[in-house]
Every structure is written in C-alpha cells, then in structure tokens.
Amino acid sequence: MRGLEGLNALWETLRSILPLTAILAFFQIVILRKPIENLKEFGVGFLLSVFGLHFFLKGVSMSLFPLGDSVGNNLVVLERKWVIVVVAFIIGYFGTLVEPALKALALEVEEISIGAIPHRVLIHAVAIGFGTGMGIGIFKILNGVSYIKIIVPLLVLIIGLSFFAPEEFVSIAMDSASATTGPVNIPLNMALAIGLAKVVESADPLLSGFGIVGLTSIGAMISVLTLGILTKI
C-alpha cells in the first residue's frame, strides 16, 4: 500500500515537470528549429529533477512541516515576546541562506554585474530582510496587530527607497522578493506561523497564520533597496 502511494506521489511530480519540459522542447525543436545539445545529458538531468523534486517534497512534508508546526506551538513557553521575535528572525535568516532559487538569482546577478554585486553579499542582505519580515510577522501574531497597520507603512517605505536606490537594485529587489519564497521558506515559515497562531489565545489561525510570507518578501525588498543605497553612497 505504501509502495503504491509512493508511486502515485512520484507520478504527480512527473506530471508537474513534464508539461513545462515538453513546451520548452517544442519551442526549441519546432519553433526555433534548434537541436537539444547533449541529448543524453538532458535526459539524465530530467530524471534527476523528477526524483530530486519528489524526494525533496517528501522530505519537507516529513521534517520541516511537522518541525515548524511544533516549534510554533511551543514558542509561547518563551515568556518574553522579544525573544520569540528574535528566534523568528534567526529561523528566517538561516532558512533564506539555503533557498536554492535565491542562490541561482544571486549567481546570475554577480555574473551580469561582472562581480560588482557579489552573490554572497546579496544573499545575506536578502536573508536579513527576510528574517526581519519574519520577526515582524510573528510580532503581529503575538500582539494582534492588523495587517493594514503594518503593510501600508512598509509599502510607503519601499516606494521611498525606490527613488534613492540605483535602478538596477529596484529590479533585483523585486526578483529577490520572489526568489525567497521557495520550497524551503514557505513550508517552514507558514508552519511556524500557523503553529504559533494556534496557541495564542488572541489569534485566529486562519486570519493570523497566513500572510507572513508576504511580509518576509517585503522585508527582502527593503533590505536589497537599502543595500543599493549603501553601495551608491
């Protein structure tokens, strides 16, 4: 029975990757009339991506989801709220450092900028902003603050920073915000926020547990724009 469930899960992963691969291959071969270079390596890479994504998603559901939920449920044992916020920042920071999409983006930025924007600097800047957004989200849950009171000032801050940051950093900030919301951070941070919202008496898990991913993305944008202003100075 478990073997059948595993095959079904693997098939679902294959179904999610196959259409995109087929479309790209169709455009490459039929529309652009270009052959696929190193077909053997392409085939091996496709299989690795299917099995890699399958095992990754399985691992996340077995480890990060339950662990994040458990940590969120037990964070309230820390009596001081500021300690909980700091813990959330640390989790968000280190979770961002291992986000594969962000690493890919940072390496691309370093290559295009000819080393002017080192990938490590960008990754750590995004991680600081993401962790800050995570801390703000947890602070919101603990104190029952509405999203409007938090999001509006942060959006105004982003607009203000955009006028002073170099134009290239505005674009990078937009992409960095998306790159942070990958397969590591989303399950971990959502599980943590929902787990905490379940045990905070004044919080509704449906209203307070969601939305924290958006705050982390906003935090990442602010940190990258700030980095741009600092490099300009």
Please provide a written account of the structure.
Pfam families: DUF1538. This is DUF1538 domain-containing protein. Keywords: Membrane, Transmembrane, Transmembrane helix. It comes from [Clostridium] ultunense Esp. There is one protein chain. With 233 residues, this protein is mainly alpha-helical. It folds into 2 domains: 1-59, no CATH class; 63-232, no CATH class. Helix content is 82%, strand content 0%. It is globular, with a radius of gyration of 20 Å. The chain starts with a helix and ends with a helix.
Secondary-structure map:
Blueprint: H1 2-31, H2 39-62, H3 64-74, H4 81-97, H5 100-112, H6 119-143, H7 147-164, H8 167-179, H9 185-199, H10 205-208, H11 212-232
InterPro entries: UmpAB
Pfam family, one: DUF1538
Keywords: Membrane, Transmembrane, Transmembrane helix
